[in-house]
Design a protein that fits this description.
This protein has 460 residues and is an all-alpha fold. Helices cover 75% and strands 0% of the residues. The longest helix has 31 residues, at 198-228.
Amino acid sequence: MDKNQQERNEINSDLEPLINKKSQELKLYWYRWYILLQFALFSLLQTWASSMWSPIVKSVEASLNFTQHDFDLLADWGVIGVMCFIPVNMWMLVKYGMRVAVLSGMFCVFLGCGIKCLPLPTDQLKYAIHAGQILNGIGGSPVLSAPTYISNTWFPASERVFATGAMMMLGNLGGTTGYMLGPYLVEQPNNSSGLNGTSNVEAMVKEIKTYLYINFGFVFVVFFMMLTFFPSKPPSPPSASAAAERLNFLDGLKKLLRKRTYWVNVVVFSMVVGSFYAWIGIMPLLYTDRASQKVIGMIGAITGVLGTVVGIPYSWLADRMKRYMSIMLIVTIILSFVAALYLVIMTMGWIDTSPFCFTIGGLWASVLILGTLIFAVQPIAMEIAAETAFPVSEGTSNYILMWFTMVVNVIFFSSLNLVSDQKVSLYMLLGFIGAALPLLYFTIPHSTPRLELDENNAST
C-alpha cells in the first residue's frame, strides 16, 4: 500500500465518528457576504494600522524624533504580538467560536488605535504609538488565520477559495491604504538632512495626528458593526464538511504532527509569504535615495490594488480547478522567484545592460509582478493547508501556518539587525523563495477529504 492510500485510509477512519449521521439541512444565507465584508474591513484596518509608518518614515523621523531602532520596533511589534497571541486566539476559536475569537482581536485593534489618538505632548506620543502597535499586533492573530475557518463555516465548497481569497485580498488593501494616504496626508521634511524649520515640524506633527484620527474613526465604525452582528456560525451549515465535527484542540494538534503534506505546505508558505511581507515592510528604506517618498508609496499602493484585482479572480478560478490547486501553487511560486531574481539583479546592478539596469519603471514592474504573485499564493496555499489537515479545525491548521510565517518574519528582521546594509534583505527574499522551490514537489499530490465529503454528499 502506497503512502497516499495509507493516508487516505487513515483520514477515512478519522472521519467516520465525526460525520453527522442524521440528515441535516444544508442552507446558504445571503448575509454570509456581509460577514465576509465585515471581516475584510477588520483585516484592512488592522493591516493599515500596522503598515502606516513605513511610507512616511522621513516625516516621522524629523517630527517625532524616531530613530531606525524605533522603526525596527514598530515592525517587530506586529510580529511579536501575533506570535504570542496566536496560541491563545487559536484556543478561543476552537473553544468559544468565531465571534469571540475575532471580536477579541478587533477590540485590541480598537484599543491600540485609540491609544495613539490620546492628546499627549509630542515627546510622549512616541510611547503611545509603540503601545498602540503592540495591541494592534495582538489583534492581527485572527486577521491572519481565520479566513479559511470563516469560508468553511459560511460558504459552500464551490465558493470556499473565492471567499478566502476575497477576505485576504481585501485585507491586503490595508497596506495599500497606508502607502497611498500616508505620503499624501503627511508632508515630507523641507530638506533631505531632516533639519526643518519649526513651522514645518509642527505641520507634520499635526498631519500625523490627523492621520491617526482618521484611522481610528474607521476602526470605531467597523468595531461597532461587528459588535452589533457577527455570529459565530449560520443556523444551518452550508456543506457536509461544515456540518462534520472537528477534532478537539489537543487531538487536532496531535493529528497534525503526522500529516506530511500539510507540513510541507506550511514550510513553503511561511518561507515565500513570510519573507515577502517582511521585505515589503522595509522596501521604502531601500529606495528613498532613488525615488521620492510619494513614488515609493504609490508603488506599494498599486501593488496592493493589482494584487487584489488579480488575486480575487484567481481564487475564483481555483474554486473551479480544486483538483489542480497544487499545480497552480507551484506555477505561481516559480514565477515569483523569477520576479524576485529580476528585482535583485536590477537593484544590485549585476548586469549593466538594458533591461537589467535600474530604472523607476523597472522597479515598478518587478515589485508589482512579485507582489501580485505572492498575493495569489495566499488563498490557494491556505485552502490546501485546510484541506490536507481535515478533520482538524481550519482554525487550528491555519493558525499554525501563520505562526510559522511570523517565525520567518522574526528570522528576517533579526538577520537584518546584524548588518548595516539593508539591501541584504533582497538576497534574503530571493533565498527564502528559492529554498522553497525544491519542496514544491512534495505538495503534489495531496489528499482532498473535505472536497470528497462534499462531492459525495451532493451526489446522494
